[in-house]
Design a protein that fits this description.
3-stranded mixed β-sheet, 14 strands, Hect, E3 ligase catalytic domain fold, Rossmann fold, 4-stranded parallel β-sheet, about 550 residues, alpha/beta
């Protein structure tokens, strides 16, 4: 690439400016100073400054910087709007040596150079190495600075002072004392928003007087409907309310340095407790935590699964695929399963069935008792699954045998090499021989490790053999347990046998999983512990979360 001084057309340059914090902008190399030096540098070399990118308050340890991304996007476009990127120093561009070299090469592929005002480098191998060494020192200095800053913040927290982040809702930051030029700060209760916190805990524990205890969603709705705004005047969200109800800061115990940058919990000995004025008493906080834990869907099933009816959550309309829900008549004396689509949108959406609940419950339970819970029928249903399981087990055993064979053969090869060395036929100092021995050891060790891992998987996946007496005992026990003394049916045992029931005109289809049935049978009547069945298995939707898109 020719220099601008020897070319009739000046090189086009882009200027990249960055500081990490507002404080650095005041005491280190400020944005105006970097801009001034960059413009002077371009003018002295005859560069045509065509664009300037500024990231104020952005760390150079990663590429999550808006203006930096715009620079890279422009620099990799064809044709690029500039040929040179000018920075005050390479640390302004990146403080990670790997990332620096990655983006330098990415720009270079499009014919763009990165030049530093204070660290001028050429393109020869020596200068490239010097740039990489300087980048390593920049990265080291950045990590050391972070370590010292964290140490200072932890000590500040130990002394009971606030470290400058946004305080939790219900608190505000106030000056506590002055030490030299620094003003130490603490938290105090914000009377206005502290009352909102207390209200949320009251609603979670006792409701608003017209209802029972509220969940997070109901509290969120309550606050928004009554125009009780957040600290910045916005609307409440479920996540914000949940964090408020579970935050220990409100009982006077704030925890600093609890999570890493990746949001992972740190060891307990690294967490610094900070005393703050409590807003909620311990008994109220504990009661709300216990209630929220009891309402957790991982512990307590939703009513569609845990309700009082036998087929809720299983039964669907065969015409539209929608769930069938309970409808009542004559003041609740009669109960029906009816298509929810028809109930919500009318008969034009679906002309679905309405079936008496007791009649359908009896029909499904009797069919399972008479057809599925017959030992001969169970053996027929499970035959294909058992055959596939046996075939899979045999394949795994063959794979383990092959791995053990490879390890044994490799061990024999190593022994022959050692014998050759002992007899003087081979020289241990031969580099090729050393490499060969190391390669054989690696193959042997990897084969043994793979065999051990496959054996452990086979052992953990192994299930006891399904015999005819076991089938007969399971069928008899299931028939007994599916019935209740009062004449009803046990919903949990039915769910171990069937996972979906579809109703159409003149036909009821009962569907289940052979694999689930086999697991229930092999575990002695349950998928978890003998004698019980799983009462709640959530049906997760595919995608980002459980909500339909």
């Amino acid at each position: 690439m020719t220099d601008a001084a020897s070319s009739s057309v000046p090189l086009r340059a882009a200027l990249y400016l960055r500081v990490s914090t507002a404080r650095q902008a005041e005491h280190d190399v400020s944005i105006p100073d970097q801009r001034k030096q960059g413009e002077a540098y371009c003018a002295a070399r005859g560069y045509q400054l065509v664009e300037t990118f500024v990231d104020a308050g952005a760390s150079a340890t990663n590429d999550r910087r808006p203006e930096f991304q715009k620079l890279i996007e422009a620099g990799t476009a064809k044709p690029a709007p500039f040929e040179v990127v000018v920075v005050h120093s390479f640390s302004r561009f990146f403080r990670d040596h790997f990332e620096l070299e990655f983006y330098v090469r990415k720009l270079a592929k499009n014919g763009i150079r990165l030049v530093s005002i204070t660290q001028e480098m050429g393109d020869d191998p020596m200068h490239v190495m010097m740039r990489q060494i300087m980048a390593l020192f920049d990265e080291y200095q950045s990590k050391e600075n972070a370590k010292h800053v964290l140490r200072a913040l932890k000590e500040n927290a130990r002394q009971g002072f606030w470290n400058g982040s946004l305080p939790p809702i219900g608190y505000r930051v106030v000056a506590a004392e002055q030490r030299g030029a620094k003003i130490k700060k603490k938290l105090e209760i914000d009377p206005l928003h502290a009352e909102t916190v207390r209200l949320a805990f009251r609603l979670a524990l006792a409701g608003d007087g017209t209802s029972g205890p509220m969940g997070v969603k109901a509290i969120t709705k309550y606050l928004n409907e009554r125009r009780i705004f957040t600290r910045d005047g916005g609307r409440w969200g479920i996540g914000t309310v949940h964090r408020m109800l579970t935050r220990q800061t409100y009982i006077g115990r704030h925890e600093f340095n609890k999570r890493s940058k990746s949001k992972a919990l740190k060891p307990a000995d690294e967490v610094i407790p900070v005393a703050v004025p409590p807003i909620i008493d311990q008994a109220t906080f504990d009661a709300v935590q216990a209630r929220m834990k009891a309402r957790n869907p991982k512990v307590t099933p939703p009513q569609v699964v845990g309700g009082p009816t036998l087929l809720t959550g299983l039964i669907h309309c065969a015409k539209c695929g929608g769930a069938m829900t309970i409808r009542t008549g004559k003041g609740g004396r009669y109960r029906y399963y009816t298509c929810s689509t028809k109930a919500r949108q009318g008969p034009t959406a679906c002309s679905g069935m309405t079936v008496p609940m007791e009649k359908l419950d009896t029909l499904v339970a009797k069919h399972l008792e008479g057809r599925l819970l017959d030992p001969a029928r169970l053996e027929q249903v499970l035959a294909a699954v058992l055959d596939r399981r046996q075939e899979r087990t045999e394949r795994r055993r063959e794979h383990i045998a092959e791995l053990n064979k490879r390890a044994t053969e490799t061990e024999l090869r190593l022994k022959r090499l050692y014998d050759a060395i002992e007899s003087g036929v081979a020289d241990l100092d031969d580099p090729d021989l050393k490499e060969r021995i190391a390669s054989l050891k690696a193959i042997r060790d990897q084969s043994r490790a793979d065999a051990d891992r496959a054996s452990a998987m086979l052992e953990s996946a192994g299930q006891k053999a399904i015999t005819a007496p076991m089938l007969a005992k399971f069928a008899q026990t299931a028939r007994q347990r599916i019935r209740l003394p009062g004449g009803g049916y046990r919903r949990d045992h039915l769910r171990a046998l069937a996972q979906r029931v579809e109703v159409s005109d003149g036909e009821v289809r009962i569907m289940g999983s052979k694999s689930d049935l086999l697991r229930t049978l092999a575990s002695g009547g349950s998928g978890t512990s003998p004698g019980t069945v799983p009462s709640f298995v959530p049906k997760w939707r595919r995608g980002w979360d459980s909500n339909p898109r």
